[in-house]
Write a structure and sequence with these properties.
Layout (H helix, E strand, L loop, with lengths): L7 H8 L5 H17 L7 H10 L3 H8 L4 H22 L17 H10 L3 H23 L1 H8 L6 H14 L2 H31 L16 H10 L8
Helix pairs in contact: 1-2, 2-7, 3-5, 7-8, 7-9, 9-10, 10-11
Amino acid sequence: MKEKLYTIPVNDAFDKDYECPICAMYEELENRYVEYAMGPSYMEDDIRDETDRLGFCEKHMKAVFEQKNALGLALVLQTHLRRTRKEIEKLSGDLGKPAALMKKAVPPSAAAYVNKLHDTCFVCKRIAEMFDRYLETVFYLYKKDPAFKQKFAGSKGFCTDHYGVLIVKAGEQLKGAEYEAFIKETTALYLKNLERVEEDLAWFVNKFDYRYANEPWKNAKDAVPRAMLKANGIPYEPLS
């Protein structure tokens, strides 16, 4: 199948020697939008309005800081904090109600605003919007492109979280026998590769036993970070 613009990132992710190609897709988006947040876009009114309103989660606040654009981040934080202060000022007249007999306290309206702000992030929002399109493209290619279907079957499987995402998404994208075949194939692929990483971990542990000191490492040197990705989707750099 001739590649189109929206299929390229998905094919690129499945071409990588990675324990979860869905994680690779996510990381590509994450890097793109972290860089975007601190690129020239932060001076655009519509982007600044969005960063002011949403802010950043703890993870992505650290990531945009690491872009080393101190002036850009200072400007973004300046207007974000100003907006937050004004919103809290508007809501500060509501003091809530203390706990009464057999009843819970009613928190001030400002608490709801703070909780909502805690759950929003400019980078997370942008990733979520595009990530769903990437997942839809995975199923599009799986149905339409035999070469991709073969690539899917030959991958190293998926992290636990993205295995779950795929089998849920399959219910929206596939029907009948095609759905059943996908679930069976994806589950078998996930379990087979989880077992492979378990075996690498077992050999990694053996290498700390003096009886195995002179044995080769086989594929176990980076077993721990690969197992971390399988378990929690934590990025790692494969050994070259």
